[in-house]
Amino acid sequence: HLQQHTRIHTGDRPYKCAHPGCEKAFTQLSNLQSHRRQHNKDKPFKCHNCHRAYTDAASLEVHLSTHTVKHAKVYTCTICSRAYTSETYLMKHMRKHNPPDLQQQVQAAAAAAAA
User: Fold this and answer.
1) For the segment 39-57, what is each residue's pLDDT rounded down to a tens digit?
2) 20 to 30 A from 48, CA-CA: which of 13, 21, 69, 113?
3) How far is CA 11 from CA 15, 21, 26, 36, 105, in A?
4) Cβ(67)–Cβ(103) below 8 Å
5) Pairing label, strands 45-46, 25-26
6) Contact 92, 84 (CB under 8 A)
C-alpha cells in the first residue's frame, strides 16, 4: 500500500487505459478497472430500489442516498439552472455544457449550496 500511496506524490501512473483515444492513466489497477467499465458501458452496481445502474460503487452510494434521505436540490447549474441533490451529479451534468472553467463553476455552485 505504501507504493500505491507514494505514486500520488510522485505522479507515477503506471496503469494506462488502452481504449483508442483515451489517454487516462491511474496510480492503482482498481481505478483503471473501474474506468474501463465506462468505456464498456458495464454497470454492475445496481440500485435495489429502482432501475438505475452504475459503473462504480461510489456512484451507486451517492444515488442510494437519494432514496433514504430527503435531499433538497441545492446544487444548481450556473449555466442552465438545473438543480441536483449532490455535487457529483451537478459535475456530471455540467460536463455536457463543456465550460472551460468546469471545476471553478462546480466549486462556486457547491459554495452557494453550503451558504
Assistant:
1) 888 899 999 988 899 988 8
2) 113
3) 12, 21, 9, 21, 26
4) no
5) unpaired
6) no
Label each residue of 30-66 as H, E or C: HHHHHHHHHHHCCCCEECCCCCCEECCHHHHHHHHHH
Answer yes or no: are the C-beta atoms of 15 and 29 closer than 8 Å.
Answer: yes
pTM of the predicted model over 0.85 = no
**Rg of the chain (C-alpha set):** 17
Domain 2-40 annotated CATH 3.40.50.1970: no
Is residue 84 pLDDT above 90, yes or no?
Answer: no
Which cell goes with 28? Answer: 492503482
Residue with cell 510522485: 10
Domain range list for the chain: 2-40, 43-70, 75-114
**What is the identity of the amino acid at 58?**
A
How far is the first Cα of the chain from the last one, in angstroms, to the nearest whole number? Answer: 38
